[in-house]
Design brief:
Elements (H helix, E strand, L loop, with lengths): L4 E4 L2 E9 L6 E7 L5 E6 L8 H14 L6 E5 L5 E7 L2 H9 L6 E4 L1
Parallel strand pairs: 2-4, 3-7
Antiparallel strand pairs: 1-2, 2-6, 3-4, 5-6
Length: 110
């Protein structure tokens, strides 16, 4: 199964399926997208306006990856639900932390 992240020269790029106003800030495992790609399924409690949800997602990813929020950069998908973030740091350590978020299940296509 393909993973929602890939190693880069300076860290990891991760695909996220975001749900703003999701009631709480959490990563709910890995989901299969309609196009066959995989993404981390994440929710944040803030609304998607003025970049608030993107900032909350970046902070959530930083905490999950064990890196500073300043080391997380939105690469694409600023206005969509499917986004790519670059997590700058030791790729092996970041991947090991992200791999623990899977929960061992796939929630199927969305």
């Amino acid at each position: 199964m393909a993973l929602p992240w890939s190693e880069t020269a300076d860290g990891v790029t991760v695909t996220v399926r975001a749900t703003p106003r999701g009631g709480r800030d959490a990563i709910d495992g890995i989901v299969a997208l309609a196009d066959g790609r995989r993404a981390l399924k994440a929710r944040v409690s803030v609304v998607a306006e003025d970049g608030k949800a993107n900032a909350a997602l970046a902070k959530l990813l930083a905490k999950a990856a064990g890196i500073a929020p300043s080391r997380v950069e939105l690469v694409s998908g600023a206005t969509g639900r499917t986004k790519s973030f670059r997590l700058n740091g030791n790729a092996q350590e970041i991947i090991a932390r992200l791999a623990g978020l899977d929960g061992g299940h796939d929630t199927g296509p969305e």
